Amino acid sequence: MKRIMVILLLFIIVRPAVSVSVAADELKHPSYSIVIDNEELKLDEKPFLRAGTTMIPMRAIFERLGLHAVWNAQTKQITASNDERKLVLTVGSRDAAVNGVKTSMPLAPAVINNVTYVPLRFVSDASGGNVEFYDGYDVVWVLSAKQDQLFSAIMFEDLKEVERLLAIGADPTVPIGPAGPEWFVFANGSIPLYELFLKYGMDINYYSQEWHGSTLLTSAITAGRPDAVAFLLEKGADPELTERNGFTPLELARYWQKQIEDGYTNIIDESLTPTVEDYDAIIRMLEEEIAAKK
Predict the structure, then answer these.
(1) What is the distance in angstroms between the CA of the first residue and the CA of the last residue of the chain?
(2) Copper amine oxidase-like N-terminal domain location, by residue (predicted)?
(3) What is the pLDDT of residue 26?
(4) Which residues contact 121 (CB under 8 A, 6 or more apart)?
(5) Do 53 and 88 fall into the same domain?
(6) Pick from 84, 103, 132: which residue ends a domain?
(7) Which residues constitute the domain of residue 126?
(8) Can you say whether residue 149 is alpha, beta or left, with left for phi > 0 and alpha for psi between -120 and 50 degrees?
(9) Is the preceding peptide bond at 57 cis, omega within 30 degrees of 0?
(10) pTM for this model (two decimals)
(11) CATH number at residue 233
(12) Are 144 and 65 in contact (CB under 8 A)?
């Protein structure tokens, strides 16, 4: 399931096919960086742009998307697969197959200087991942299938699916985009989700550098969940770890209590709106925890 988010700019525009016989000195290289699961893709062979499509070295992209690629020199076919997906592409042809279903690519794979290039957006989408271009950041942001699926699983609190994805390497601290937020922010104060994040190695005091400095504790405070705040404090969450925007957990709790007093309600589900009493309990816990540390 694709996540619901604002698309700032379409990255790939479908154009007619062009010849795969491209001289290396004719190639136009993109100025933007390519980031996959919050790690910039470093390549010896640069990607190139052709007919509005970013072409990228085959093995680098498939490996980062969790696919094993096999090259058949006789048929000029590329087969990339894992337990969930099988992609079959042919050099010089826009035709492709994804799990046996025929489809078409915006540009055919090409071999240049003994390197096989494939369309970035097509293979990312076909693998179950997601691609966005963030013009203001000059970056193409790619999320692998496991990261894209983790978002939906967290949103629907599908604990079995969340654990499956965490077990194969999905990371709740990977941001949606270059400005965040991270997946864990959407846990909405769910203790079972927090337990899974911690079980699979998330630091109780992980500090988001890109999205207001959010932590598990501040996300639970924002959700207005005294039970989740108590759970995290017991596990060692720092009650004085300041957000990037300057808020301490205690200041954040007081801020949200004031919002509730002024009539704030949860815009998605009013039944999830915390009460003033919820924040009374949170503030009391934080004050006691801070006092105990002194």
Answers:
(1) 48
(2) 35-133
(3) 72
(4) 11, 12, 53, 54, 106, 131
(5) yes
(6) 132
(7) 28-132
(8) alpha
(9) no
(10) 0.85
(11) 1.25.40.20
(12) yes
